[in-house]
Amino acid sequence: MQINKMIQIAPSILSADFTKLGEQIEAVETGGAEILHFDVMDGRFVPNITVGLPVLRSVRKKTRLKIDCHLMIVEPSRYAVEFVKAGADMVSVHVEADPHLHRTLMAIKQAGAQAGIAVNPATSLSILEEALPFADFVLLMSVNPGFGGQRFIPSSIEKLRRLKQMIVEKGLRARIEIDGGITKQNIARVVEAGAEIIVAGSAIFDDNKNPSEATKELILAASEWV
Rounded CA gap, 160 and 195, in Å? Predict the structure, then answer.
């Protein structure tokens, strides 16, 4: 089920039940998800610790969906290519964490994956000025990274619009991904503002939700921007 070839739902397994992760991945795939979002946290760049390469290898065997690895870690250049080798189709690194962003982005591409720049809520878009031409996508955080279940930061809408304008004015093709606090109530607004890849965790994997139906509901809600 698709609303638009350019709009894709990316369920975040950070919010999934890991005792039945395989089932939940199958459910979101049935519901129409095209990308699986894989959050990697190291307890240093962000306070939490999540999953790494062994889990990614297992997930890769379980799904045909594209896997999008969001590296919330220090020294991402040390590990980015390893995540590609383990099965990631997309890898994003934080502009705040990598002083050699061009080198890391090019290494990800050369390894065969799409390369993305992740940006924290309080980070100015101006810091992307030089690196943006080398990115396949930009991951705009609409919550502070490190934990699932946070509330959407409203100012992210205007930041989305400014990022979209920056990409258009430069004549680039980088796509915009947004992550944090996305629900049925706000997804149409973020799509209208320029987001094309929508990461959703709690909105899909909450205990009282059917992941397949929740994915379908988000896809339908996103279509309301048209």
Answer: 7
Token pair listed for 22: 């395989």
CA distance 137 to 67: 14
Known active-site residue 39: yes
Q: Which amino acid is at 121?
A: P
pLDDT under 50: residue ranges of the chain: 1-5
Contact call for residues 68 and 88 (beta carbons, < 8 A): yes
Taking the C-alpha atoms of residue 52 and residue 126, their distance in angstroms, rounded to an integer, is 31
Please identify which of the residues 39, 42, 98, 136 carries the catalytic annotation.
39
Please pick, among 42, 98, 179, 206, the residue that the annotation labels catalytic.
179
Amino acid, res. 40: V
Q: Which amino acid is at 118?
A: A
Predicted pLDDT at 225:
60
Separation between Cα atoms, residue 209 and residue 216, nearest integer Å: 12
pTM: 0.94
What is the C-alpha to C-alpha distance for residues 104 and 79, in angstroms, rounded to an integer?
Answer: 10
